[in-house]
Design goal:
The protein is α+β, with helices and mostly antiparallel strands. It has one domain (about 5-85). It is about 35% helix and about 20% strand. The strands form two sheets. Strands 1-2-6-3 form a four-stranded mixed sheet. β1 (about 5-10), α1 (about 10-20) and β2 form a beta-alpha-beta unit. It is globular, with a radius of gyration of 13 Å. Mean pLDDT is about 50; it is low at about 1-15 and about 70-75.
Amino acid sequence: MNMPLYATKMLGATLQTVLVCLEPDVTGVFIHPAGQPLVLSRTIANLLINFDRSNREVVYPVCRGLPGKPLLLAGELARRMAASPP
């Protein structure tokens, strides 16, 4: 896929700053809270609320057959990924 996507394992305020400063052509942000235990669950909840307010789609990935944590926050990106062959 040839589209911007930011992958990050940043902490709380820094992660929020990244989301606020996204360029218009960045359609999604991949976060991995499990890989960074110092990211508070409340921070993730706030990010989800903010994305919901901006009408962006929240995708819940499935890992090993079990529902995963909300790792991918996306708008058009999710639709493009679903339409792309693996």
